[in-house]
Structure formats: structure tokens, C-alpha cells
Specification:
elongated; alpha/beta; 5 strands; Rossmann fold
């Protein structure tokens, strides 16, 4: 069964929506009587039904996983600020060594709860696309063909989406070190390992250490 809450922001949005929904019905019933309340209930219920149908259509995978050769391995890389880290590049290079591999890099669109609730994700997506571009360029410089996608703000949901459309054989999750990683504090790696049967490699990228010249 699919989790209806893609993230904490979605759960918060649902609570606010429920308050507005029932509040509007109650106000209409008090101000205009029972029939006004019934009319508002019908209109709002229809609007909610349309929104749910559109959301399901949007979330449905556009394409099925492509056929693959017997020797082809698919590697899914999920990272945010660490997406261009040297340690992550080395981990991907080791993963593809000795075989033919297809690499998909997914960068979740980080956003504030307020902006996510108001569906204002343009800035978050633009920043994620910029990080992706730099990461893909570095992988190609190493001779590793890869493509990138901006994923859901919730990294676990972003992985689930990629599993349906990409079908990876290995998932590489990159985070900051413990104490500086929101994903580790939220238990993203643990949750992904409990939820998905695909092997998962966790790579710690210390961008501060990498920035120090030798």
C-alpha cells in the first residue's frame, strides 16, 4: 500500500487542508443554514476528488523500466549537497568498475516546509539542477556515462520513484558526516534499507575536508 504522506510537509498540508475544509462547511452551515453547509460540502468534496485524481496521475510513472542487457548494471545515486563530492565520485567509479553500467543521479529538491506547502518549488528545483549538472560533468570526466533527475524533496520518496522508473541493482546514498547530516538525523539510510530490497551503499562525503588543499 502506498504511503499517502510523501513527506512531513505533505502531512502538515493535509492537516491544514482538513481544518479549512471542515471550517468552511461549519461556517456556511451557521451563516446560511443547513443547505448552504451541504452545498459547500459538495463543492469542496468535488474539488478534493479532482485534486487527488490529478495527483495520482502526476505521480504515476511515465515510462516503465527499459529492457537491459544481461551484463548491464543499473546504479542509482541519491545525493544533495554532497552530489559533487570526491568521495562519492570514487564510490561510483568503484561500483561501475569491471562491467557495463548505467548511472542515474537523483538530487532531491530541498525546500522549506512553507515553500513546499505553497507549491513554490522553482528555486529548490533550480538549485538541484545546478548541483546535478556539476555532478554529471565530473562523472563524465571520469569516463562514467550518467544522467540526472531532480527528485522529490523527501529522499526516501525520491528513491521509491526511481525504483519504479529506473529499476536499479544498487543504490548509493551520499550524506554529510554524522552530526552535520540532516538525512542521517532523519534516519534516511536506515529507512531506505528497511523499506527497499535493493542493496544500499552509504557514502559519507566530508566537503569541508575535501576543500582543504593538500
Amino acid at each position: 500500500m502506498k504511503n499517502p504522506f510523501r513527506s512531513e510537509a505533505d502531512a502538515f498540508r493535509l492537516v491544514i487542508g482538513a481544518v479549512v475544509y471542515f471550517g468552511a462547511i461549519a461556517i456556511a452551515a451557521v451563516a446560511g443554514g443547513r443547505w448552504w453547509g451541504l452545498g459547500v460540502f459538495v463543492v469542496l468534496s468535488a474539488a478534493v476528488a479532482v485534486w487527488i485524481l490529478r495527483r495520482e496521475a502526476r505521480d504515476r510513472p511515465a515510462v516503465a523500466p527499459r529492457p537491459r542487457g544481461d551484463d548491464e548494471e543499473r546504479i542509482l545515486v541519491v545525493a544533495n549537497e554532497t552530489v559533487a563530492g570526491e568521495a562519492l565520485r570514487e564510490a561510483v567509479r568503484e561500483a561501475v568498475a569491471g562491467g557495463r553500467a548505467t548511472v542515474l543521479v537523483v538530487c532531491p529538491a530541498l525546500n522549506s516546509k512553507l515553500r513546499h506547502w505553497t507549491s513554490d518549488e522553482d528555486q529548490a528545483r533550480a538549485a538541484a539542477e545546478d548541483r546535478l549538472g556539476r555532478s554529471i560533468a565530473e562523472l563524465e570526466r571520469l569516463g562514467i556515462p550518467a544522467r540526472g533527475e531532480v527528485g522529490d524533496a523527501d529522499p526516501v520518496q525520491a528513491i521509491e520513484d526511481a525504483l519504479r522508473t529506473f529499476g536499479p541493482d544498487l543504490i548509493v546514498i551520499s550524506t554529510h558526516p554524522l552530526g552535520r547530516s540532516n538525512w542521517l538525523e532523519q534516519g534516511v539510510v536506515t529507512s531506505a534499507r528497511e523499506r527497499f530490497a535493493v542493496p544500499i551503499t552509504h557514502v559519507v562525503v566530508d566537503l569541508e575536508a575535501e576543500a582543504v588543499p593538500d
